Structures are given as structure tokens and as C-alpha cells.
Amino acid sequence: MDKKEIQRRRMMSYFIDAAKQIMDAEGLEFVSARKVADIAGYNSATIYNYFDNLDHLIFFASMKYVKEYVMDLPKYTKGVPNPVEKYLKIWECFCIHSFHNPKIYQLIFFNKFSTSLNDVVKQYYQIFPEELDEQEEELMPMLLEKNIYARDYAALQACAKQGFIQKEHIYEINEINLLMYQGMLQIILTQQLDYPLEEAVTRMLKYIKQVMKSYYLAK
User: Helix 148-161 vs helix 170-189: angle between axes, to the nearest 10 degrees?
Assistant: First the structure.
């Protein structure tokens, strides 16, 4: 890696960390170019040498919150040999973290930058490679996929590969589970949930299990 690229990544990390600091202290909606620049110690115009716009920077900073999910994931999946059980454990960990931080997860997985998530994720982990240190090798393709549908699809492929579901059913399962998840996330986001978040996680897992059961191949 040349010095110019090292400098670029270092500068991006300054602005990402500054934006995350504001998000922690004040909230997502209070992030501004001026505040970020003040904390990072640079002119606000410098931000746009490294990010398309403020939303682009906020998207990168939001990935810092996904770090908690990524770091927690091995605790759920380690030692789980059955790919279907592992798939459910991935969902459990994801729901726990996303339901407690719905604005951030909505921004990352269901906004205008979400279609180019792959590029952002790759750049992000080039800047902060240590955040993937503890991950299982088989989960890496899922974590680096371009959007939430592709991530779930990658996890389901392992189930099909070992004969638990038919390959031709992956798309249907993928779509059903993610439509359910997006609906639950939206209910939480709009504060329409009339039961605890823990119950939302339990219900979501119950629904996903029912979907998997309906496509499950007896072995």
C-alpha cells in the first residue's frame, strides 16, 4: 500500500470517528459537516475530498454500530455445525442488535446507499480491518456481501449445499424472511410496537423458523 492510500484511509478514519462521536452524544440527525470538521480538526470542505456528501460519511460512521453485531456474532455461531441452526443464530444476533438500534440499521440496509453497500463495506474494513479479526472463515462472504438480501442469500446457500433446503427455494426463503424483518424493523422504528424488544426478537425467530420448517428437507 502506497503512502497516498495510507493517508487517504487515515483521513477517512478521522472523519468517521468524529461523526460517530456526534451520533453517540447527540443522535444521528445532529451530525453536520461543521461539527465533524471541528472534532476532526480540519476544514469542513476537506470532508468532500473523501466522501461524496454528508450522507455518505454518515453511512460509513453508521458501520461502527454494526461492529457490535459483527464482534458478537462468533458467540452465537461458534461450535454450531448444523447450517440451519447457524442461520437461525445469525438472525438472532442480528435482530437483537438491530432492534435496539433501528435507525442505524434502517439507514445501512434500507436507504439509497444500501445498493452499493458492498463498496462501502469493503472500504470500511480496509480502514478498520481489526473489526473482522475474530470472524469464522465461512461467515466472511456473508459479512462482505453487497446488500442485506445478498447477505441472507449467502447464509442460505450453506443450508442448500448440505441438503437441508432445495437450492431453487433459496430466493423465496430469502425474500419472505427479509420482508418480515423489514416490517418488524419499521414497526419498531415508528414506535408502534406494543410489546418489549425481547419479545420482538422471539417472534421474529419464531416466524423465520416456521418459514425454514416449511421448506425443510427431511434428512
Answer: 140
